């Protein structure tokens, strides 16, 4: 489904990402980990064509993301708050997305009902602008937005960061429920080794832009990562 070939990103003479080959099949819950500056966000930004690779390409269902547009309707993503419209309230924002995705009002209600527990009464009907939300609540809006319109791929950059412990567990349950009930392919970057290993089928570990581990066996994930990170 997502096929990465000969991917390299360079800023001046520094190579920040170098991935000869990486394939992420449909329905996989793919976890991406690595220390600060390892290249996780850069990889996500290249997949979304927010930055261009220096060499190589990313294909989603055979379509080169830097050359075509149709893949955009298959992908939902939340990388950071720049992806939100901060002058709207969350209700206005979801309504705007409803129109973009051509969903009915009932579809939107159904979608948002899935997030009721995660929103914890803090997001909807509050008449508070997105720009005034706490970091955790901003993240919740972004995640709910990324999952709108039945995307085939959902990309979340550090989704557990800034969430309180109950919200982290609620988000985990939400992703696990989605995994069980749909064919969505998740790409999740995280510094939280426990959460990411709990929900992901596979973990790729980046170090200085290189894939140094690609772990597909659930039983050894935690030990392998603890050994690497010294945790
Ligand atoms: N526009 C840019 N110009 C120069 N260097 C950049 C630019 N964007 C990213 N980098 C560099 O690319 C490298 C990878 O950064 P990236 O943000 O992808 O890492 P990350 O794994 O997401 O880190 P973190 O865990 O801290 O969020 C870093 O060394 C960063 O400084």
UniProtKB/TrEMBL annotation:
Residues of the signal peptide: none
UniProt keyword terms in alphabetical order: ATP-binding, Nucleotide-binding, Transport
Protein name: ABC transporter ATP-binding protein
Domain spans labelled ABC transporter: 2-230
Superkingdom to which the source organism belongs: Bacteria
Keyword Protease found: no
Molecular function GO labels: ATP binding; ATP hydrolysis activity
InterPro entries cross-referenced by the UniProt entry: AAA+_ATPase, ABC_transporter-like_ATP-bd, ABC_transporter-like_CS, ABC_Transporter_VariousFunc
